[in-house]
Structure formats: C-alpha cells, structure tokens
C-alpha cells in the first residue's frame, strides 16, 4: 500500500540551535494510527510543526510526498488538521461560536458542525457549549479544541499530547474514537498512554548526538 504521507531525509536545525533531525525518514499509511514517543526535548513537537509547515526558520531539508505526489510542507496544511498542545480559541466567544468561527475560517459545511458537536458529546462537555470559553476549565478547553480539530474533514490528523488535561473516561473514549476511525490517519505525540493504543505502531524518537536518524 502507498503511504498517505511520507517524509524523506529530513534534516532540521533551529536557527542557532542544535540539529534535531539528521536524515530522518517517516511514513504514515491511510487509516493508520502512529504514536510518536520519546523523552522530553527529543523533537516530537518539532516534527509535528515541520509536517504542518509551521517551521520555516532554521535549516530545513527534506523530500515530502502526499498520496505519492511530491509536496512542499507549507502546502500540507490543506490536507491535515493539527491539534496543537496549546489550545487556540476565541475566549470571549461561546463553544458554539468557536465551532462556527472555525467553520467559516476553513470554509466547511454543516457536517463539520455535527461532527464537532458529536465529539463534544463523546467527551461529555456538550452542556458547556453555550458558555464563553473563558469560563471553561483547562480540560474542557482541551476537549473543545480536540473536537474542533478532529471535526475538520481531512485524512491526516496530528495531535500533540492530546490526553494531558483529560479525565480518565475521556482519555478512554477519545482513544477508542481514534482507533475506530479507519478513514483517517492519526499521528499522536504522547510519551504516555501506549496501553491505550496496543494495536498501533509506535515510533520512538531517540536522542543520538547528531539528532534523530531514520526511524527503525
Ligand atoms: N524555537 C526554538 N528555538 C530553538 N530551539 C528550540 C525551539 N523550540 C524547541 N527547541 C528545542 O528543540 C528540541 C526539541 O523540542 P520539542 O519541543 O520538539 O521536544 P518534544 O519531544 O516535543 O518535548 P516534550 O516531550 O517536552 O514535549 C529541544 O531541545 C528544544 O529545546
């Protein structure tokens, strides 16, 4: 089977910083869930930022392919949804209004709204949607952020430590949802929660002196 997305010979160094990746290659297949693990500071968030085209400063070399076709990482934004570790939200607006803002921003139809609300129900925070986001707890903000990100209709989802602020029941439900979804691929940075993803591939980033080399 052809990978959905493939990154070859990635070399990356932050401006004035150390080399984080050295000739690193990684692929993810349609419908696959990959757990990205490794110690603090090894480069998990950096890799997700790179794949979503957010890092254009520093030394960056790679070849990338989406569905077999060469692609610039800055163009990957159209094909993926990235649930960053920091929640990005309009805090004076309600949950419903935030869902609607992202619908307008991404130019989506009502299907997206239905899916976002379904995810809010799954994560048991639907009753908070009528309130402004600045009244939410940290975990409730995280749930809305995840619901909005996963409702976007794409074939590749990137998630950075999505479980951190969630209660146990929500962690279980979210992990089940992700593993049931065979239509999309998920790349999830998390150095815990491997027990929730027993059937998933684990890519463990190491910290060799020269930066990460191609995953084994
Ligand atoms: N803007 C930046 N400029 C320079 N170096 C940076 C920058 N952002 C991150 N780094 C460095 O890049 C390395 C990788 O950081 P990154 O946040 O990707 O690690 P991580 O594996 O996600 O860590 P954690 O498990 O703590 O979230 C670290 O050594 C970090 O200090």
TrEMBL record:
InterPro entries: AAA+_ATPase, ABC_transporter-like_ATP-bd, ABC_Transporter_VariousFunc, P-loop_NTPase
Pfam families from the UniProt entry: ABC_tran (PF00005)
Gene3D superfamilies associated with the record: P-loop containing nucleotide triphosphate hydrolases
Domain ABC transporter: 5-214
Cited SMART domains: AAA
Record's keyword terms, sorted: ATP-binding, Nucleotide-binding, Transport
Name of the protein this chain belongs to: ABC transporter protein
